[in-house]
């Protein structure tokens, strides 16, 4: 479990997260939702160590993340950011970057690193792209390559910031299914999602944020009954025979 207590974090002198406390449960799919700019990415960046917290604590399986090295952290937590560069590099080499936490310098890839890459490419259905240059791929193909890189990292916790961006609807569903599958294979997946219908359909645990604070943490049914999503986004959420609808409030 990742246990976050009274977390303050942000950029320069400005704290964006203001006292966030929540738990990311093992082998569950946690979805984080909230309006633009409310701090979802800042939360993931702080957990993964991209930015330093101002105060509060983050424990992973009872270990204080402040006490472990960036490499050890990366072995435990893979993070896919929302904004990604487009490097001039072959797909297979980019996915190998996911293995960096396991290699000392100068990096010599081992058979198990190449196997992890093969597995990740296969899992994302992009074996055919392995020798292509990342810069020559479509937005959706590139997105899958980055997710493969996160998978190749082999961490127990996967933090994915808007992973469905650029994916067509069928690949979005495939990715959500894959996230579920990973949770049944001893992984814990956290995804920032903007599509509320998908988020409600898939989440085991739902986190709702607003203005740098946690508004809700719990089950999909409970967030639905709370009407907090409706309030925050000014929408109407409905559940009809196991199907979630999100409509503009009239
Ligand atoms: N590198 C940065 N330097 C300074 N401020 C930043 C930086 N990145 C984000 N912010 C600010 O932090 C706030 C929260 O941003 P964050 O990206 O965490 O929000 P978000 O909930 O993920 O938003 P979105 O849904 O639009 O992706 C915003 O006001 C943003 O302008």
From TrEMBL:
It is a peripheral membrane protein. GO terms for biological process: iron ion transport. It is found in: Cell membrane. One of its GO terms (molecular function) is ATP hydrolysis activity. InterPro entries: AAA+_ATPase (IPR003593), ABC_transporter-like_ATP-bd (IPR003439), P-loop_NTPase (IPR027417), Siderophore_ABC-ATPase (IPR051535). SMART domains: AAA (SM00382). GO terms for cellular component: plasma membrane. Keywords: ATP-binding, Cell membrane, Ion transport, Iron, Iron transport, Membrane, Nucleotide-binding, Transport. Residues 2-236 form the ABC transporter domain. Its main location: membrane. Transmembrane segments: none annotated. This is ABC transporter ATP-binding protein.
């Amino acid at each position: 479990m990742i246990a976050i207590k009274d977390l303050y974090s942000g950029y320069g002198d400005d704290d964006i997260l203001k006292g966030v406390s929540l738990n990311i449960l093992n082998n569950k799919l946690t979805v984080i939702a909230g309006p633009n700019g409310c701090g979802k990415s800042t939360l993931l960046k702080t957990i993964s160590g991209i930015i330093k917290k101002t105060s509060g604590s983050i424990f992973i399986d009872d270990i204080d993340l402040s006490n472990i090295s960036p490499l050890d952290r990366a072995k435990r937590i893979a993070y896919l950011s929302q904004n990604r560069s487009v490097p001039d590099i072959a797909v297979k080499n980019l996915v190998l970057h996911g293995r960096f936490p396991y290699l000392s310098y100068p990096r010599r890839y081992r058979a198990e690193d190449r196997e992890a890459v093969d597995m990740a490419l296969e899992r994302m259905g992009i074996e055919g792209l392995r020798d292509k240059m990342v810069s020559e791929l479509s937005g959706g193909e590139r997105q899958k390559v980055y997710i493969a890189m996160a998978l190749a990292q082999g961490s127990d916790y996967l933090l994915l910031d808007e992973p469905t961006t650029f994916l067509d609807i069928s690949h979005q569903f495939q990715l959500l299914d894959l996230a579920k599958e990973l949770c049944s294979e001893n992984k814990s997946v956290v995804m920032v999602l903007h599509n509320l219908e998908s988020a409600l359909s898939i989440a085991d645990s739902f986190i709702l944020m607003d203005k740098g604070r946690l508004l809700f943490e719990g089950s999909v049914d409970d967030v639905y009954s709370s009407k907090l999503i409706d309030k925050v986004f000014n929408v109407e959420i409905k559940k009809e025979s196991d199907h979630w609808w999100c409509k503009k409030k009239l």
